[in-house]
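Lab notes, practical 5.
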Amino acid sequence: MLEAAMQQASDFDLGYLLVLAGRVVQHATDQVPFEEGLGSADVNALYELHVHGPIVAGAFAQLLNVRQSTVSAIADRLESRGWMSRTRDTTDRRMVWLALTPAGEQVVQRAAVRMLPAVQDVFGGLTPGAAVALRALLAEFVDPWLAQRTGPRIDPAAMVPQQHLPGTVLV
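Output from the prediction step:
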């Protein structure tokens, strides 16, 4: 009984630390100014489309942790700027596919380069080995969750041009 209670407390602590770590990274990236009045919520949406798109709107809502109606507002905003396209599914007209446009892909690339120093600052205290280990541990439970909702995941490190990563380990 005591072991079970200790395990539950340990699981809670782990969850709490993960939530805090996510907030630290989010706070760091929220401080990065973007071009054209682009906010961090739009950058996050564009990045999710980069990694997981094309994606159906329902899965996109799950990734962003927002309601379907919020996805419509985000899609309207990004589509009006030419950064995203919407396509109705040909077999199930209720489904709408969201995808980055080439212009949206360029915005993601520029935003990633601008955000990289903030993310590096957050993880700067980790040794390269610890950063690789943390990434592997997080991927162990995040990747199956993502795959269930969106399909296989691409390596986010592949999106930033290598010349911007000298001696850097992305987590």
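Observations recorded by the TA: The longest helix spans residues 2-30. Residues 154-171 have pLDDT under 50 and may be disordered.
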